Structures are given as C-alpha cells and as structure tokens.
Amino acid sequence: MNILIANLLSGAAKAKGTAVVIDVFRAASTACYAVAAGAARIIPTGTVEQALALKAAHPEFVVMGERGCLKPDGFDFGNSPTEIKDADLSGKTVVHATSAGTRGILAAMESAQDVLFMSFVNLSATGSYLVARMPEVVTLAAMGRAGETPAPEDKLCAMYLKNELEGVPNVMDAIRSFVRNTPSAEIFFGASAIVPETDFDLCLDLDAFDFVLRAGRSPEGFVELLPLGPGRGRLTPDATSGDVRAV
C-alpha cells in the first residue's frame, strides 16, 4: 500500500487510488454524528444553492452545513456535531454543504477509484477498511480551511492514519493539546468563538464510531455517502477478490 498525502481541494482533485478525504473541523465529524443520529445517507454538495435546490425538490430531506463556519439561511442544521448529535434523523437523507469537506468529496470522485470521508471520530474503522481492501495506492487528502489554507488538525489526522497503517505509535492526547492552541481552534473558544465550544471535543473524540463513510452514486445520480460497519453492514473481505462489501 503506497500512502500519499495531499492537501486542500487541489490535492483532492488529483487523488489516486483510494482517496480518504479528511475534514476534522468539522464536516467529516458532523457527517459521522449525523449517521449516528440515524441518517440513512448523506448527499454532499458543492454549493449552498445546490443544497437548497435539493431541499426544495425533496422537502423530506434534511439540510446541514456552513459557509464561513455559520449555518446558511434556509438550512435545518449547521455544520456542528453539537447541533446534530441529538437530532432524530432516523431513515433521513441529509444534504451536506460545506466549504471544504463536501467539495473535497466531489473533487476526489473525479479522479479516485474509491472515496472515503474521515475524521478522528471514525479513523480506526477507516483504517480497517483499507487494511481489508489493501488498495495499491491510498491518497490522504487533508482539506484544510475552506479547502484553500492548510489546517493542522487535518494534517495530523492524515499522519495519524498513515502511522496506524504503518505500525507507528500515535499519541492522541498530545494532538488534542497541540490543536487547542492553534488558529484552527479559535472558532471554538473565547472572544473569537463563533461555533459551539463542545464541537472541539466532539470532533477529536477518537474512534467514537465504528463505521466507514464511503462515497458512491445513488440511483438518482447523486453522489452519496453511505455508512459501512457494525450495525450498518459488516465489513467483510471477499474471499476471492479481497474486496470489501456490506453484508
């Protein structure tokens, strides 16, 4: 397994093999909490307008996301684990529009053979998926802020997964302490806070969930994220191909 690390939207657009799109603060984390709250699938979109158009066409859909870290007008939820974790999303389709993560998924779909969405909260499940599948090339795409500026939490998450796959020890407590004192954390704390402070810990809750978020095409032609894992279909290596399928 050749593990590459790419950065930002430009890196996601050039991803090779299996792409792991990483957005810790907060898109991939929020997507995982939405699935844990019962969402059946998540439809990532590139713009707020696309998300609202899907909502208009399908009033039963739930829309969550952000621009400038804040919930856009007309959305049901922001891009916030705190907002979404106690919602009842049982069986719902959730439309997700963010500045970096959801755009990264769509970009990676153009070049990669397989696309996963990851944060610290589903890191080990994602690692297990990769070990079971053993793709020749894995691209870890750290999305950064708005897909344009590097963010330490995304780079550290990519390195954490790379270390796990290569048998190198990690220290999550050190990562939490370091990230707490970076510009990325300013949105959570003090006078500069614009999002729930509790999101910080929720996004850094290592292995809170045991499922993978995998992108594919829906029957309607949408890109959609579906959860694979215990309770969502067990990850099982195919005896002949080494592939992974939900059973």
Describe this structure as you would to a colleague.
It is built from nine helices and twelve strands. With about 250 residues, it is α/β, with parallel strands linked by helices. Mean pLDDT is about 95; it is low at about 235-245. Helix 6 crosses helix 7 (about 150-165). Helices cover about 30% and strands about 25% of the residues. It has a single domain (about 1-230), classed as putative 2-phosphosulfolactate phosphatase (Alpha-Beta Complex), CATH 3.90.1560.10. It is globular. The chain has a six-stranded mixed β-sheet, sandwiched between helices. One of its GO terms (molecular function) is magnesium ion binding. Pfam families: 2-ph_phosp. Its EC number is 3.1.3.71. It catalyses: (2R)-O-phospho-3-sulfolactate + H2O = (2R)-3-sulfolactate + phosphate. Its cofactor is Mg(2+).
Short summary:
This protein is an alpha/beta fold and 247 residues long. It has helices at 8-13, 27-36, 48-57, 81-84, 101-109, 123-133, 152-166, 172-180, 198-203; strands spanning 2-7, 18-22, 41-45, 62-65, 77-78, 93-97, 114-118, 137-142, 212-217, 223-228, 235-237, 244-246.
Summarize the helices and strands and which ones pair or pack:
Elements lengths: L1 E6 H6 L4 E5 L4 H10 L4 E5 L2 H10 L4 E4 L11 E2 L2 H4 L8 E5 L3 H9 L4 E5 L4 H11 L3 E6 L9 H15 L5 H9 L17 H6 L8 E6 L5 E6 L6 E3 L6 E3 L1
Organism: Desulfolutivibrio sulfodismutans
Protein name: Probable 2-phosphosulfolactate phosphatase
GO molecular function, one term: 2-phosphosulfolactate phosphatase activity
